[in-house]
Amino acid sequence: MEDRDFEGSAELLRAIAHPVRLQILCAIKDEHAVSEIEDITGIAQPGLSQQLAILRKADLVITRRHGKQIFYQVDSERLLGASEMLDALAGTATERRIDRHTSRIHSGGGAATFARVFR
Fold this sequence. Notes:
The chain is of the alpha+beta class and 119 residues long. It folds into 2 domains: 6-75, Winged helix-like DNA-binding domain superfamily/Winged helix DNA-binding domain (Arc Repressor Mutant, subunit A), CATH 1.10.10.10; 77-113, no CATH class. Helices cover 47% and strands 17% of the residues. The protein contains 5 helices and 5 strands, in the order H-H-E-H-H-E-E-H-E-E. It has helices at residues 6-16, 19-27, 34-41, 45-57, 76-90; strands spanning 32-33, 61-66, 69-74, 96-98, 105-107. The longest helix is centred in the last third of the chain and has 15 residues, at 76-90. Keywords: DNA-binding, Transcription, Transcription regulation. InterPro entries: ArsR-like_HTH, HTH_ArsR_DNA-bd_dom, Metal_resp_trans_reg, WH-like_DNA-bd_sf, WH_DNA-bd_sf.
């Protein structure tokens, strides 16, 4: 962990650790336009735009423009990095990869990863 960007990691965790932003992230696992995010979450446009800007700054979302609409989706790879850091801190790290076609996370490892022993 000595090569880790602690400042960047802390910024990422601060961005995630806000209830409204966490609600937005949960709503945009699949791609949605801003108006759809507003409908799903019930967060009014001014506040929603402010929180989406923070998520963009933290590189937690992928954006796509189509005409006047902007679509947002969670950046699964960025969140995977946060997850791996927390797993390392908790001592539960396993090898993972993201399936680019389904955006699903697959855990690697062998037989030794099926159980955790507590003493």
